[in-house]
Amino acid sequence: MRINRYLASAGLASRRKCDALVEEGKVTINGKPAHPGSEVSEFDDVRVDGQKVMPREEEYYMLYKPKGCISAVSDDRGRKTVLEYLPDGVGRVYPVGRLDYDSEGLLILTTDGDLAQRLTHPSNEVSKTYIAKVEGVVTETDLNPIRSGIEIEGHLTKKCRAHVVETNKNYTKIELVLKEGKYHEVKKMFASIGHEVILLKRTKIGELRLSGLERGECRKLSLEEVNYLKTL
Ligand code: URA
Fold first, then answer.
1. Of all protein residues, whose CA lies closest to atom 4 belonging to ligand 1?
2. Distance (Å, rounded) from C-alpha 213 to C-alpha 199?
3. Among this protein's residues, is 100 annotated catalytic?
4. How far apart are CA 84 and CA 80, in angstroms?
5. Are 230 and 222 in contact, with CB atoms under 8 Å apart?
6. Cβ contact 187:90 at 8 Å
7. In this model, does residue 49 exceed pLDDT 80?
8. 42: confidence class by pLDDT, cuts 50, 70, 90
9. 157 vs 146, 208, 222, CA distance in Å?
10. Is the pLDDT of residue 183 over 90?
């Protein structure tokens, strides 16, 4: 990575200030002066004024978000946030994307801003899989408008996959795979075909599945899972 980013992510200063340190000749890489365009990896010996700079270890967590908390690090209305479910001593992690207050399921939290940005940027179309429990009986045919795209508040939703996984006279469970994440999108999709969502659960991001957790529990992502997310 570029030297200014390396220094900034180690918590030294903003990228601009780190550029200035490089230009002032205060930074060395393996004993040689750094230049603004220098690239470094975790194996290089990087020093500022002779002091070794250690790269910051990024942190990656999977949380089984329960209902009744917001996907943010603070709330001006004093509601519970997802941070309350993380162990003490975790770094400055942020949730990747959002799940509504009353939705549950897979939420990733990380200090890695680049990965968070990639996973949420609309142009990357990372798929998200949900199970929506909706009131009443929904048939496969009823799902056709949702599959082909419906206009919600002037926006045509992207084509998506949807199928019924369970149904009885009171409710139907539908699995949906979406490649976009507009505000309250799933709830609005079902509202537009006349069904209210009773519970919404996210089960996958790409092929990363919510696994090994009870509601409200979190765990570190494995190296394999992190590397997979970096391919998305
Ligand atoms: N769509 C919704 O309506 N709510 C969520 O939490 C996620 C997707």
1. 184
2. 18
3. yes
4. 7
5. no
6. no
7. yes
8. confident
9. 8, 23, 33
10. no
Structure tokens at 18: 């780190």
Tell me the mean pLDDT in the region 186-202.
96
In short, whether 205's Cβ falls inside 6 Å of ligand 1 is: no
Q: What CA–CA distances, in Å, run from 178 to 58, 162, 182, 189, 204?
A: 28, 9, 10, 11, 10
Q: 113-120 and 223-230 are packed helices; what angle lies between their axes, rounded to 10 degrees?
A: 50
**Distance separating alpha carbons of residues 36 and 161, to the nearest angstrom:** 47
Kindly state the greatest CA–CA separation across the chain. Answer: 73
- Alpha carbon distances (Å) from 187 to 4, 37, 121, 134, 159: 43, 47, 21, 9, 16
Residue 131's φ and ψ, nearest 5 degrees, are: -110, 120
DSSP H stretches of helix in the chain: 3-9, 15-23, 113-120, 144-148, 185-192, 223-230
What distance in angstroms lies between residue 91's CA and the mean position of ligand 1's atoms?
A: 27
Identify whether the C-beta of residue 173 lies closer than 8 Å to the C-beta of residue 167.
yes
Residue that the structure tokens 């075909």 belong to: 193
Give the active site residue among 19, 100, 112, 142: 100
Distance 132 CA to ligand 1 centre (A): 9
